[in-house]
Design a protein that fits this description.
Layout lengths: L8 H4 L4 H14 L6 E5 L5 H6 L5 E6 L2 H14 L3 E5 L2 H6 L2 H4 L2 E5 L8 H13 L3 E7 L17 H7 L6 E6 L32 E6 L4 H5 L11 H28 L3 H45 L37 H17 L12
Parallel strand pairs: 1-2, 1-4, 2-3, 4-5
Antiparallel strand pairs: 5-7, 6-7
Helix pairs in contact: 10-11
């Protein structure tokens, strides 16, 4: 399934679980803006800057995607006088003296995308030590085993705490996607909510970690256990869409399996597993064949050199007889007749020369007794 990384303005207003969690983070931050000058770092389409602008005196949104920034400036920037958008790299922008320009820096779901997240954290820490307030969120990617191609760094609970361990006056607020049950007549205008809070604070299982720096007690009164409810069947719609997508993928896999091996289902899985095993064995045999071919080529070169220099002496052969102790007949090499078009250096020609010249010459010294020359 595709990973949604940038919510459009329309998607941010939709009645979905994803949009709900994104909006709530910005509404949480907006309650802490209190007329301050705010930097919305990694702002995306500007839906969050619009929420912040309801409470902040001024908001500057910064993102590294030119198309996204142009659209944000044309829409949200054109709609609100206290919002402006700039194209820029997050680390480069933080390297400026942002503490003089902004009183609060908001960065939601941005750090995990940065190639130099260590430098970004270092700069944020420097701003915090000079008194700038920070509200930064990180997704709990390691707990849920996310495989997000847009993330450079995945954080878990321990990694998130270590990242902000030496920031001054820091409070971590976990954000959970809660479960619930709703019975609501069509004409109802209100919803009674009963909350079960006994095990609510297990931050290591949070979906996101929101770090608030230099906020003091403001965090407690700004967001006293607020829960945002979407009273439409968001989860059911999402799970049904996921189920239909899985079934479509399963049907396509079955079609491909039938087209390739004439089977589907568990039989196809078993056949494909056997095919993969055979392909692995074939790869091993091919490697061995290549090694053997290289060795044969090497031996051919050595044999040709030895034949050319008349240096072939069988292993274990006795010392040549002393002068006068006997004589060895020298056999003249008689070229084997060639067939029309036959290569004089072919293996067949070499075999013939060995049979008519080389082997009889060796047997004058060491009887082979039916053994081959190599033996």
């Amino acid at each position: 399934m595709d990973v949604v990384e940038r919510l459009t303005l329309e998607a941010a207003q939709a009645d979905t679980m994803l949009a709900c969690e994104h909006r709530q983070r910005y509404e949480f931050a907006a309650a802490l803006c209190g007329g301050r000058r705010v930097l919305d770092l990694c702002c995306g389409s500007g839906y969050g800057a619009r929420i912040l602008a309801g409470e902040a005196s001024d908001v500057v949104g910064v993102d590294n995607d030119a198309g996204t920034i142009e659209l944000a400036q044309a829409t949200v920037g054109g709609e609100l006088r206290n919002v402006h958008f700039e194209l820029g790299d997050a680390v480069d922008y933080l390297s400026r003296d942002a503490s003089r320009t902004f009183e609060l820096i908001v960065c939601f779901e941005g750090l995990e995308h940065l190639h130099d997240v260590g430098r970004a954290l270092e700069l944020l820490r420097e701003h915090a030590k000079r008194g700038t307030r920070l509200i930064v969120s990180l997704p709990n990617g390691k707990l849920f085993g996310e495989e997000n191609p847009h993330h450079v760094t995945e954080f878990g609970y321990d990694e998130a705490l270590r990242a902000f361990s030496d920031f001054p006056a820091t409070v971590m607020v976990p954000q959970f996607l809660a479960e619930g049950s709703l019975i609501c007549p069509a004409e109802a205008r209100g919803v009674e909510v009963a909350l079960e809070l006994e095990q609510r604070y297990e931050p290591e299982y949070a979906n996101h970690f929101v770090f608030c720096v230099n906020m003091g007690e403001a965090v407690q009164w700004a967001h006293q256990g607020r829960m945002q409810l979407n009273c439409s069947p968001v989860f059911n719609r999402w799970s049904e869409d996921l189920k239909h997508g899985a079934w479509a993928l399963r049907r396509e896999n079955a079609r491909l399996a039938r087209g390739r091996i004439g089977k589907a289902g568990s039989a196809a899985a078993s056949a494909l597993a056997g095919l993969a095993d055979r392909e692995a064995r074939l790869d091993t045999l091919e490697d061995r064949c290549r090694t053997a071919e290289a060795r044969v080529t090497e031996l051919q070169a050595l044999l040709s050199a030895a034949l050319a220099a008349d240096e072939i002496v069988p292993a274990g052969a006795p010392e040549p007889p002393a002068e006068g102790a006997g004589t060895v007949e020298v056999l003249d090499e008689v070229p084997a007749p060639l067939e029309p078009g036959e290569d004089p250096n072919s293996w067949e020609q070499r075999r013939r020369r060995a049979a008519t010249v080389l082997i009889p010459w060796i047997e004058q010294t060491v009887p082979l007794a039916g053994k081959t020359v190599l033996e």
